[in-house]
Design brief:
This protein has helices spanning about 25-35, 60-65, 80-85, 115-125, 130-135; strands at about 15, 45-50, 75-80, 90-95, 105-110, 140. By secondary structure, the protein is of the alpha/beta class. The protein has a 6-stranded mixed β-sheet with strand order 2-1-3-4-5-6. Helix 1 links the parallel strand 1 and strand 2. It is globular, with a radius of gyration of 14 Å. The protein starts with 12 loop residues before the first strand and ends with a strand.
Length: about 150
């Protein structure tokens, strides 16, 4: 039985753990996400989902279970890549079709130190998906604006 994860607060984004083989790395990435990243103390406003029922979930699988009326337009997946790559690039999955040219299921990765920027700005509609996706490195990872 899966823990219910969809809630009505679009300002708090979901961070879903999909890999359960790397416990120390999961603890480190959680700490990195929670740590304030700017002089003003900005952090990503997130709710962690640590439930084995989501083990192995992919972006496609997340789209299958997302309710049509979900208040979230995106979610973060902490997968094997995020837990086994040195810069811990977390997968960002677009759940809604708001914005120009971006479709449900579009993805990019973000390093934990820049999650606050993605989460805060997309949640508040200060910026749109395309603005972040346009700034990823060649490896598909958003590491901040130049």
């Amino acid at each position: 039985m899966r823990t219910p994860i969809w809630h009505g607060n679009p300002d708090v984004s979901l961070v879903i753990r999909t890999d359960f083989d790397h416990e120390p790395q999961w603890a480190r990435i959680r700490s990195a996400i929670e740590e304030p990243q700017t002089e003003d103390g900005f952090t990503a406003l997130v709710s962690f989902v640590d439930d084995r029922a989501y083990e192995g979930f992919t972006a496609a699988r997340l789209l299958e279970i997302a309710p049509a009326d979900a208040s979230h337009s995106f979610a973060f997946l902490v997968d094997t890549v995020a837990l086994t790559t040195p810069d811990q690039p977390i997968l960002v999955v677009k759940l809604g079709n708001e914005g120009q040219g971006s479709l449900d299921g579009d993805t990019f990765r973000v390093v934990p130190s820049e999650m606050w920027s993605v989460q805060n700005n997309l949640s508040l509609a200060n910026m749109d998906w395309a603005e972040f996706a346009a700034e990823v490195d060649r490896d598909g990872v958003f590491r901040g604006f130049p």
